[in-house]
Here is the input.
Amino acid sequence: MKCRKIGLKKTFSLILSLCLFLVNIVYFNGINESCYAAGNESNSSVSEQADSLLDEVQGENLFTDEFWNSFGKNISFVNEKSNFSSSVDCGSFKISKMPNDTIAINRLTTGEHQKVVVVPKAFILNKDGKFSFPKGEITFNGNFLVSSEKEDGKICPVTDILDYAFANCIGVNEIVLPEFIKAIGKSSFSSCVLLKKINLPNYIKCIEESAFEFCFKLKEVVLPKSLENIGPRAFSGCKSLEKVFTSPSFLKKIGKKAFNNCVSLKSFFMPYKVVCIEDYAFFGCISLVEISWPGSIKFVGVGAFLRCLRLSFIYYAERPTYQFLREILKKNIFSNYENKIIVCRYDPVDLELYEKGILHFK
Here is the structure.
């Protein structure tokens, strides 16, 4: 009788093990299928992936070295504008010829780990239809580009940096842009984690979405006088950014999360034509102490200065109306700061002297 019970127990145990084995096969097949499906969708842009993570993590802890090591280096970048024109390789650059005989930089194809990248002022379109580097120095003479040497073809100036052109160039410390650049595309320099220095020429009107996102080592930016719009997340996560020089400028709009989590930014003096500061534009700028408030501002988004823990001074040239102050306070743009905010009047001349380092408010 005991032997029969033992035999039944073994049989039951074998059946149970077989069932569990089958369940595991079905389960892991499901996981593999879902992973395969996820892999097919892995070419989504860095800004979309980072933005979804930002909503989950809620701020400061997102932009850490651990985050970059585990996430950023695995991102694959897709140039969304690369198909608008045929592109060719020229030296270490993939370039596209624009309809008006200007050149757009499509991608840095080699030397992603080199320390300094100098973008040529122009390329030469030869008679055989191929591109080459200029023999001489390119300069602007009136309405024409000229070369110090005799060129064999047409001089085509570099005017555009396309989407993702330098994205994920993790070894680059410095990028030198030519003076004719007028457009910087989406995520064009994103995740250049060692980038410390870049010049922004004075023809640029817009810094597009996520253009410098996750440039962890970038310390200083001089905004061009021609600039009108800073796109969403343009400098988001630039945790070493301390100074942004803005005057004089035609800047009118600061986009959503434009300077989000720039934890080293200490001051920001807005040009007199700024009209709109969108949601969470300066969210998490925990070192931000002082800002200017021009009378041109008409709209401030939700949480624009949320978690600016040290914000203490707001300088204004024209006193905001009571109705406007009441409206922005409803949106909780100032919150969680350690000190009482002192609002003081400044003279436009004083601001110019301040930005030149001649005058100090405190």
User: Anything to note?
Assistant: The CA atoms of residues 31 and 307 lie 39 Å apart.
